[in-house]
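Apologies for my clumsy wording, but can you show me some protein sequence, whichever is easiest, together with the matching structure tokens, please?
=====
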Amino acid sequence: MKFRLAALALAALALPLVACGDDKEAKVLSGYQLTPPPAVGALSMPDASADGAEFTFVSAADRYLIVYFGYTSCPDVCPTTLAEVKKAFKQIGDTAEQIDVAMITVDPERDDGDLLTRYVQSFIDDAHALRTDDTAELEAVAKAFGASYTVTKNDAGEIEVSHSGNLYVVDQNGDVVLQWPFGLKADAIATDLEILFEKA
């Protein structure tokens, strides 16, 4: 009798565990958020993909803007990162139509407007290609986002570029609401975008 009661008690305890196992796991952001979020909405840069029109770092209502700092001759970080964004867009389907992408070149000496436009739009069809020959302007925009880069020449006169590999998600207030570090896979990017739209 004691054994039977003990067995029933264990069965009762197990029921909530089984029920919990049936629930969907709560989605958790893979990117990180800064408090307060960096404000970039007051800044702008020329958009080479739109005949040099000024591009402001603010998304339209009910949309998000993904911003990336890189350069077209980047051997690995840039193509890998943009390829993951492209894969993530495929995963989220029609929601991707509510997301704009802008790539800022940190190597404007070699990345003219046409080259940069072709490069970024080879990954995302309607992406914006942002560039400026004004060093101070580029530095100010990078600092506002928290991005870093260096462009130097080695002893052989060859240009060497290094840059941070983060992606930045900007909302309609011009705030950077999410940052993704280099190496984040498409699955995580897609999930984060779904979370952002669910919370909007």
About this structure: The chain has five helices and nine strands. The two ends are 56 Å apart (CA to CA). The CA atoms of residues 51 and 113 lie 9 Å apart. Confidence is low (pLDDT under 50) at residues 1-23.
